[in-house]
Design goal:
152 residues; alpha+beta; 2 domains; two-stranded antiparallel ribbon; 8 strands; 48% helix; elongated
Length: 152
């Protein structure tokens, strides 16, 4: 094993902690390799430790540390209001609740459309029976409508 590889492995082993766990979720802390000191550095003090990605070009993003001042303390770090883990959890829960409500609305809408389709199919079937010469069209209509009233 080369000396360069041993040095690199030792630097990786000394890498600062780059994640924290809060409320079952993992949050990344900005960690970068400093070419001048030849080692890994943790987040800069005073700023939010979250990693953000700045777009460069169309498909390329460069990671960097959030530049906002850290004002809210959690897990030993000072976070900005956007990346503060309790705020992130609250946003995720709100988004999840909104998606669940939308899914429930869609399910109710599709159930209503399914009932309407079944009613149209039964009415069309009754009309075809009447056209074919059903003996009691009024009774057939009452049967179809009575069945639909029981289902609805």
């Amino acid at each position: 094993m080369s000396a360069e590889r041993i040095v690199k492995d030792a630097q990786i082993a000394r890498r600062p902690q780059n994640t924290i766990d809060y409320d079952g979720q993992r949050y990344s802390l900005h960690t970068y390799y400093d070419t001048y000191s030849q080692g890994y550095k943790g987040p800069k003090e005073g700023n939010c430790p979250a990693t953000v990605y700045s777009p460069v070009g169309i498909w390329h993003h460069v990671p960097g540390q959030c530049q906002r001042k850290g004002k809210l303390e959690c897990e030993g770090y000072h976070w900005c209001a956007t990346h503060y883990p309790p705020n992130v959890v609250a946003r995720r829960l709100a988004i999840h609740a909104r998606h669940e409500a939308e899914a429930e609305r869609n399910r109710l809408e599709w159930d209503a459309r399914d009932k309407e389709r079944k009613m149209r199919d039964a009415a069309l079937k009754a009309i075809k029976q009447i056209a074919d010469g059903h003996n009691d069209p009024r009774g057939l209509a009452m049967e179809v409508l009575g069945r639909k009233a029981a289902e609805g």
